[in-house]
Amino acid sequence: MKEKKKIILTGDRPTGNLHVGHYAGSLKRRVELQNSGEFDQIYIMIADAQALTDNADNPSKIRDYIMEVTLDYLSVGIDPEKSIIFVQSHVAELTELSFYYMNLVTVSRLQRNPTVKSEIQMRNFETSIPVGFFTYPISQAADITAFHATTVPVGEDQAPMIEQTREIVHKFNSVYGPVLTEPQILLPDNAACLRLPGTDGKAKMSKSLGNCIYLAEPEEEVRKKVMSMFTDPGHIRVQDPGKLEGNTVFTYLDAFCNQGHFAEYLPEYANLDELKAHYQRGGLGDVKVKKFLNCVMQEELAPIRRRRAEYEKDMDHVYEILRRGSQTAKETAAATLGEVKHAMKIDYFQDASFLEEQKGKYAQQS
Ligand code: TRP
Fold first, then answer.
1. Does the structure show a pLDDT above 50 at 1?
2. Is the pLDDT of residue 122 over 90?
3. What mean pLDDT do residues 308-327 have?
4. Where are the alpha helices (H) located in the chain, listed in sequence order?
5. How far is the CA of 233 from the centre of ligand 1 (A)?
6. Which of 123, 143, 204 for a ligand 1 pocket mutation test, highest count of atoms within 8 Å of Cβ?
7. For 137-186, how does the pLDDT look when each residue is reduced to its tens digit (9 = 90+)?
8. Which of 7, 17, 29, 50 is the best mutation target for the ligand 1 pocket, counting ligand atoms within 8 Å of the beta carbon and taking the most?
């Protein structure tokens, strides 16, 4: 039997620059997976068509972030020689796949999707949900299956989408034959990375709340945001015992710091456990912890900023990466659509036996 290929597909909506939440939750992992050499193909999609499902009246916002997100990808180390970066709307085959998958999903199943449910509330869509938005989990199943993806590295909020995709795959394969590949979700293994809070301690990082640290942000801006991060409001004087639960600075340290950072910037502590113990005991001030976190973040972000600056100098090249990637992605998706239409018996003009069958019906009559 043919060895099954290992294929990654994942992506982001281009509604803003990517921030450290995206980085901890998914981007860093993607780069590690890319460089592991374990995958046969890697597709990274800029989900502009999905972004339009709740931004229909604001296409110029989406347009503005196509190249921005591409730069963010390249800056974290997505290597266009190893990964295919592409634009969703360029791959029209995805829409056609979605249309056929729609027959395999019920309205009530979509209504039960917890991510869609909470997004409907967040956007005050309760009384007037755009149909395109409501059905985006189906289009996401098309994104994933068009590339026969086996692995989808995403944040926790995307789990219901992958679950729904797997259901569509089962349904399709049982009705039409074994064509589609069942994907697995790959979540961050570090709990702090699963759901990095905003700098204000709020669970959700969002542009409108102004609580994100962006990957493209200058050093001084990052420092300011770190130094004004939410900590333990009860930790007033240095000697007071401090709490770790809900303490954003420590959550970020959980997500980003390693042993090496202590040796370099805070050698009086062996590791994060010692630092935490001192904080809880009392006698360790927020400023000292924040300064340490700033060093950690700057070390993580410096190479990203440097790479971005290089790519920004050659936007023609960035554009070409995106254009070529989109073309390659389109070819792959077209091949899958061909298999799907064949399995569904609607490939009339690709299938020579179609006309023969039809002729056969009449040959007997004469
Ligand atoms: N829904 C994802 C997000 O909001 C973006 C996305 C679209 C995606 N299609 C995908 C992610 C397919 C993984 C696989 O971030």
1. no
2. no
3. 98
4. 20-22, 28-36, 48-52, 59-76, 93-101, 107-111, 114-122, 131-134, 136-145, 159-176, 191-194, 219-227, 248-256, 259-265, 272-281, 286-312, 315-343, 352-363
5. 36
6. 143
7. 999 999 999 999 999 999 888 999 999 999 999 999 999 999 999 999 99
8. 50
